[in-house]
Amino acid sequence: MEADLVLRRARLLTCAPLAEEKPRSGHAAADVGAVADGWVAARDGVVTATGHGDGWEALERSIDARVVDVEGRVVMPGFVDPHTHLCYAGERWDEFAARRSGADYLAVLERGGGIHATVRATRDASDEALLALLRRRIADAAVAGTTTLEVKSGYGLEPEEELRQLRVIARARASAPIDVAPTYLGMHALPTRHADDRRAFLHEVVRTVRIVAEEGLAEAVDAFVEKGVFETEEVRPVAKAARDAGLALVLHADQLNDVGATEFAARMRARSADHVANASADGLRALARAAIPAVLLPGSAFFVGYPPPDARRFVAADVPVAIATDHNPGTSPLEGMPTAIALAVGLCGLTPHQAIVAATINAAHALGRGARTGALVKGRRADVVVLETDDERELAYRLGARLVAQVYASGRRVDAA
Amino acid sequence: MEADLVLRRARLLTCAPLAEEKPRSGHAAADVGAVADGWVAARDGVVTATGHGDGWEALERSIDARVVDVEGRVVMPGFVDPHTHLCYAGERWDEFAARRSGADYLAVLERGGGIHATVRATRDASDEALLALLRRRIADAAVAGTTTLEVKSGYGLEPEEELRQLRVIARARASAPIDVAPTYLGMHALPTRHADDRRAFLHEVVRTVRIVAEEGLAEAVDAFVEKGVFETEEVRPVAKAARDAGLALVLHADQLNDVGATEFAARMRARSADHVANASADGLRALARAAIPAVLLPGSAFFVGYPPPDARRFVAADVPVAIATDHNPGTSPLEGMPTAIALAVGLCGLTPHQAIVAATINAAHALGRGARTGALVKGRRADVVVLETDDERELAYRLGARLVAQVYASGRRVDAA
Prior knowledge:
By secondary structure, chain A is α/β, with parallel strands linked by helices. Helix content of chain A is about 35%, strand content about 25%. Chain A folds into two domains: about 1-80 and about 375-415, Urease, subunit C, domain 1 (Roll), CATH 2.30.40.10; about 80-365, TIM Barrel, CATH 3.20.20. The first copy, chain A, has helices at about 95-100, 100-110, 115-125, 125-145, 160-175, 200-215, 230-245, 260-265, 280-290, 300-305, 310-315, 335-345, 350-360, 360-365, 395; strands spanning about 1-15, 35-45, 45-50, 60-70, 75, 80, 145-150, 180-185, 220-225, 250-255, 270-275, 295, 320-325, 385, 405-410, 410-415. In chain A, helix 4 (about 125-145) crosses helix 5 and helix 8 runs parallel beside helix 9. The interface between A and B is medium-sized, with 30 and 30 residues.
C-alpha cells in the first residue's frame, strides 16, 4: 500500500458506507463514522487506507509523499453540491427586494420577469464571458470545500441555447479543479416563442435529449414540475427519452405546491427529487421505498420567504436526505456548502451530523456517485476537507465563519489561490 | 491637504451625515451617499477628503503614499458591530440541538444551563487562555470588515470575575488592530450565590460600576431586562450609578417579552436599546423621540428560533435602526457583519441599503461614536472596507460569500494575515 498524501492526527469523519451501497436514511442518517486520532492516506488521487493512531507509519510512502499533521482538526469528505444553476449571467437584486413570498414568485414568473431576466442576460453573454463567470463560481465553490459540483443548464429555455450553455459547462468542466456533474435542465420554463405550442416545445426537448447524450454534454435531464410551469405528464416523454439515451432523470418537485411530482419521481426512478418542500406523505413513502434521495434546498426558502422543507418529516419517513446550495441568481444566491449546512440545521431541522451526511455521502448518491466519492474509504476519490476546528458541529452554527482550512480534490490541494 | 492613502475609482458609499449628527431614521435610513467614480483620501489614519473623478490628483501626497485603484469596486465605511459577547471560553453546541424556541431558552436558563455553562467555562479559563480566544475572535471580525467592535463582559456574573474579564478585554483592546469598545454587562443573570438576595447583588453591581469607571474598564453598563431575569426597577440604581460615573447605559430590552424595557431605555437616555424584538408601539415612539438607536440582532432569532424583530415597524416609527452580530456562544454564534446584514435583510425586512446604514453610521451612534467613524467624511477615522464587487447589495444576498476584499482601520490595512 503506497501513499503520496497522508493526513494524520485528525478527528476523521469517514462517512463510510454501512451495510449496503445506499444513501443513508433513518437511524443511519446521522452516522458520520467518526474516528479519534484518525488518518487517511491517498495515492494518485485515490484513498488507499484509513485508520487511527500510528498505523499510517506502516504505509510505503512515495519519495515526495506529503504527511500533514492536522493537530486534531476535523478531516472529512469534500462536500458534494448536487443542485446548482451556476451557468448564468446578470444579477437580479432588484427583484429580491420586491418579492417576499412563494405566491409572489409565481406572479413574477407570469409577468415575464424572474427567470426570463436571467435568460436574456445569459443569452446575451458570449461563450467566453459565460465561461469566465462559471469558472470563477466553480473556484469559489472549491475554496469553500466543494469537491463535486452539479451544474445545470436551464437559462436558455430554447434547446439551441441550452446546448450552447451545456457546451460552455463542458469547457469549464474540462479545466475544473473539482469534479463537475453537468445536467440538462431542459424544462425550466416554457420559452415565450412556444407559449401557444407546448407540444412542439416538448418534441424539441426530446430531440435535444438525444443530442445531449450523443455529445456527452450531460449526465442527467431535469424538469421543473410545478403549478403553472410543467406537469408530470409533460415530463413523461422527456423522461423516457432520457432513459433510452442512458441519462438520469432529476426533478424540481413539489417546491411550492404538491403536484404529485415526488411520487412521479419515484415512479420514474429519478436519481433524486429536489426541493420537495410540499411533497405529500405518499411522496415521501415512495422515495423511501425506492431509496431515492430528497435534495432539500433551504436557500430558496430563506430568500423567497416560503416555509422551509421540514427535514424531520423526511428523516422520520426513512427518506435519504441530501442538501445543496441551489446557487442561482433568482432565488438562492447563497454560496458554499457550509452555508447550506447551517441553513439546513437552522431552518429545516436537520441535526449537524445529519446535515454533514446530507452534504457528503447522500449528496454523492444524489449525483450517481455514491460509490465514487462522499466518503473516506479505500478506493474512493481522495476528496477531502480539513476544517479549522476539532468540532464539525461548528459547520452548522458558526454561520459566516471561514471553517474550511484545506481542500483536496482527487488528492490535489485546490483551495490555495 | 496631504494624503498617505488614496482609494480611487470606487463606487464610494460615504454614509455621510445629513443635516444633523444624528443616527438615521425614516427616509434617511436608506441613504448610503453613493458616489460614482469616487475616491477617499486619508492621512495618519484620518479621512482628509473625498470626491469623484480626478480630484484626488490635486492632493499633496506623502512620499510613501499608497494610491489604490479599486477598479470600480465598492469602498465603504468599515463595519461597526455594536453588540457582542466575545469574551468567553467553551462552546455549547449540545444545547443548540435541544433548544428550538424562545420559551425553551428561558427554561434552559432556569435549569442552570445556558449562560451558566459559559460562566463556568469562562471562570475556569486563565487570563492568558481567555485573552488568546478573544484576540482570535477580534482578528476574525477584522478580516470580515469590522473596524469598530463592542465587547461585553457578562460571563462572570459575580462582580469580581466580571472585573477580571474586563481587564482581559482591556488587554485585548490595547493590542487590537481595530477599535474595541468595552461594556460592563453587570446584570446578565443573577449569580447562584445571590439567588436569595437580589438586593445584595445589585448593591455589589453599583459598587462595581464605580470601580469600572475609575479604572477605565468600560464605556457603558449593560443589563438584561427580561421576564425572570432583571426588572427595570432593579436596573434603575445601576443606571444612576453609571450616569454618575460618566458611563453610558445600554439594555438588552424586550427580547422575548415586552416588559417595558424599551420605554425605560428611552427614559433613562440609554445609548442604545438592543434586541427589542417585542418592543411595544410606545417603546418605539419613545426611542424615535429620543433618537436612540434600536440595535436589532437577527442572529439570536435565527438560532433560538423565535420570530425575528420586524425592522419595518422600527423604520416606519422613525426609530434609527442599527444591527449587530450579537456574537455569543449560546444564542448567536454567527460571524461577521456581512452575515448580520444578510440576516437583517432576509429575516427582519430591512432593505440592503438600510442594512448598510444600520451596520455603519447608525451602529457607530449606538456606540457613542457617531461623530468619529461609520462614515467616510473629512475628519473621521479612516475605517474603510473595499468589497470584491461593484454592487453593495451583494452583502445582503450572497450569504456565505467572501465579499470583503480589503480592510483599513485608522488607515492601516488589517485584513492581510
